[in-house]
Each structure stands twice: as structure tokens, then as C-alpha cells.
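Hi everyone,

Forwarding the result from last night's run.
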Amino acid sequence: MSQSNAFLNTLKKINYAFDATNKTIDSESNTNLYNKDFFGKKSYLTVSSQLQLEALCAGLSRVYTLNPSFRAEESKTNRHLACFTHLEYEIAFIDLNQLMDFSEHLVKYVIKNILIDCKSEYDNLNKFVSIGIIDKLKNIINKPFERITYSKAIELIELNKTKILKTYSKEVFDKDISHWGDDLGSYCEKYICDYIYEKPVLVYNYPKDLKSFYMKLNDDNKTVQSCDLLCNQLGELIGSSIREDDYDKLIQRMDDKNMDKSVLQWYTDLRKNSTFSHGGAGLGLDRLVNFCCLMNGNIRDVVPFPVAYGECNY
């Protein structure tokens, strides 16, 4: 049997879909197959491959993956999709500053090389679609990204509240202005990049209650070593953090969030049996393409068949 035929036969064996009631259906006959359960237990679409990368990082030091990830956010914005291409990386023996360095260098490396490798495409974009894009991207390469704490970002938002409301008068209301303890609103993020610093900004040390259980707690017991890269016209491009490597602190964080630790025993055992400092990040590749084209932040302009909240046309 040829490899192609074997592959097709394998697909036929596993090609089951799920209807709205979560019953298993044969995709060819469209009949219910109640006696078949492919995994033998409930399974879900992944939001991230991070935890698995952490396990691999323990043996390989530096690892990455490029996979589809999924979000069930009821968010109809111009930068959110239900399914997106996710570049994630994990690095051993790294601190927060080194992690921010890596993310900044990665973005600049991509921009530098696409300006060379895609010169003709950029010449056309520069003339007809995104006027001035080449100079804007070169300016991003040649300047260091700004780095500010979350508390500093909130301070800037409060100081510029009137200007933010005026700049985005048709979309932003007083309730959208972020205060300490809130996640940064998308328009607040864009205002910081577009009008205050006029370049990408790395915001770090977010409140622990805003972030996930695996992020390393700071000495103040209020913030964690997380960092978001915010970009002009776009908002968040990369979310990253140093991971909590202390077993007892990790367990306490899981308890604080009322998590079922039994399903993540394999993960907590990484700290229990041996531990090391490490950190990593997740980058939305579609957002990076959007940013490199300066397409005014609409993710649907750079995704051929977008699937988003309220949209599944393909």
C-alpha cells in the first residue's frame, strides 16, 4: 500500500466530527456513533502549547512551536480570532530582562529580513496601501523598544485620560479607561504606543490577579514577572513571563485560583522533582503579519479564511 493510500485510510478511521450535542458522528454516513470515543475521555482545543514546551525545555534548553491555537472569547474586535497561528518559545536559565531582549530582537529580526526578502512587495505597499510603511518599519528597527512597568502604564493612562477619550471619541467611553488592577484596554495600549512613545512598548510586572497561575511572583506579592509587547496601531503582539519555579508557590497559586491540581500533576512534578529558572512567550503570527503590513490593525485583512466570534464561514 502506498504511503498516500495509507494516510487516506488513517484519515477515514479518525475522521469523526461532533454535532451541537457533542455526539460523535461519522463524517461519511452522517450517522451517530455512540459507541466510539476516539480519545477515551473528553478532549478540548488547545489555547496554548506552553506547558508542554516547559517540559521539553527542561531537556532541550530552548524550544519553540508553531501551531493553531483557539480562543472562545466573545469578542468582536479587529484583532481577535477564534483560531490563530501561535508562535511560542521557551528558554531555560533566563530572567525577565533577557526575555524582553529576546522578544524585541525577534521582532526586529523579522522586520529587517522581510524588508530585504520582500522588497518588491513592500515597494507596492509603500505606494498604494500603507504609505510610508518602509520608513516606519526602519524606524522601529533602529530604536530600542520602550520598557515600562504596568504601574507606570496606568499612571500614563490616568494622566492622558482626556486625550484618550478625545482621540478615540467614537469608540472609547469612560468605562474603557484602565485603572490599577484592570487589564489594559486596547485603545489605552495603542495610545501609549502611537502617541506617548511613538514606538513599540514592553509593559511588565502586571498584577498577579490578572495573570495565570504559572507566572513567577515578585517579592511585593502583588505583581508577577509577566510582560506584554504592545505595538503601534495594533496593541498586544506578544504575551510572556518568567515561570514560577518554586513548587510550594506554584501550588499555592493553583489553590488560590481553585484549580484542579490532579489534571496537572505531570506539570507540577517538573517543579517537585527538579526545577530551574525559565521563561517564554506566545506571539500571534497573524498579528505580526498585520503589524508588518501596518494594515490599521484589522486582523481579517491578513488572514485568508478568518474564524472569529460569530464568524465561521469557511
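DSSP finds eleven helices and nine strands in the chain.

Cheers,
N.
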